[in-house]
Structure formats: C-alpha cells, structure tokens
Amino acid sequence: QVQLVESGGGLVQPGGSLTLSCAASRFTLDNYAIGWSRQAPGKEREGVSCISRRDGSTYYADFVMGRFNISRDNAKNTVDLQMDSLKPEDTAVYYCAAAGGCPKEAWEYVDYDYWGQGTQVTVSS
pLDDT tens digits for 84-105? Predict the structure, then answer.
C-alpha cells in the first residue's frame, strides 16, 4: 500500500523556522509531483507549494512566497518544506500529497492521487 508520512511539525514562536518532511514507502517520490497543502481550523484546505516531477519547477502560494522553500532529497526519498519567518496565521495541519504533475497555471488545483495524514504546525508565543 502506498503511504506518505509527514514529520517535523510542532510548536514554534513567531519568526521561527520549521522543516517539514514528506517520506514515502513503496514508491519513489522523484517519480511524482509533490505538493504541500494546509488546513487551519474552520477553513478550507489550501495549496502551499508544489514541486514538479519533470524539471523540478517549484510553485508557491503568495502568502508563503519568500518564506517557504520546497526541495527534494532523493537520497532520503523525501520532499522537504523549509518554513522560515513563521506567522501565527501559518498555524494549520500540513499535508503532503503526490500526483502525476503540478502544472504552472494550475498547480493549486491538482487532483492528488495520494495523501499523508498530516502534521500539526502551531505558531504561537
């Protein structure tokens, strides 16, 4: 069974940093586009970032541009989301997901094939 597992969440003060990691069992992440989404209490899930399968292009939501960075670690078979300058409004459950691609014009609307269970990120003083 294909499985994605997120790790690295936790409690951090405003302005701090966290790195989330998405790991996979039974398949190679490099063969998929990998996206990160988040869902805050009472809000709909929103796309945060995506890294493409073909050329490694990366895409970010405006609200994280310049603060978050998505990257692949093929040696570890993970996709990481480095989050800097965190704000209280970044508090959410963060999910990683895998799909065949994340096109530039529609990366936020990708119909992902596989999802992880999520990891909680809380930004609070």
Answer: 999 999 999 999 999 999 988 8
Please say whether the beta carbons of 99 and 85 come within 8 A. Answer: no
User: What six digits make up the tokens of 100?
Assistant: 């065949």
Tell the residue number behind the tokens 């990160």, with chain if given. Answer: 36
pLDDT-derived band at 109 (thresholds 50, 70, 90) equals confident
Instruction: With CA atoms as reference, report the closest residue to 68 among 89, 53, 54, 48.
Output: 48
Q: How far apart are CA 60 and CA 67, in angstroms?
A: 10
Spatial separation of the C-alpha atoms in residues 123 and 16, rounded to whole Å: 8
65's CB contacts (< 8 A; 6+ apart) are none
**What region does 106 belong to: left with phi over 0, alpha with psi -120 to 50, or beta?**
alpha
